[in-house]
Amino acid sequence: MPTILILNGPNLNLLGTREPEVYGADTLDDIVDELRSLAAERGYEVEAVQSNAEGELVDALHAARATAAGVVFNPGAYTHTSIALRDAISAVELPVVETHLSNVHAREEFRHTSMLSAVCLGVVGGFGRTSYRLALDAVISHLEP
Ligand code: DQA
Known about the structure:
By secondary structure, the protein is α/β, with parallel strands linked by helices. It has helices at 20-23, 28-41, 54-67, 83-92, 129-143, and strands spanning 3-8, 45-50, 70-74, 96-100, 122-125.
């Protein structure tokens, strides 16, 4: 079965307890479990990686070239700062959907800019855990137009 990488950046390991009024009460495991079953229904496997370290996220994108058909990526705060992640997304030539739980455009000004959106297939945000479902659907629909 082809694999979709679910990649999560800094502080997303704390989902469930981290600012639940912004990010919801679900844990990352809850979200990944749901994606795993949704993906399976469509004939895909899910691999989940979370790291708080920028370089490890770069490494995970590099590794995905050999293992994944597409990527659902919530880069956390690195969205707004990371040229290294932007270059990695460009380099790997995989369909990557930038994914956010919160509506970053309704929040602080520094969250309105993404270093990554321009090199991603598209962006989903503002729908809580539904953002991940929509992003998974977008990746699979891209792979199977
Ligand atoms: C986030 C939004 C980012 O601005 C923030 O730094 C995060 C989470 C989201 O999912 O809404 O860590 O990516």
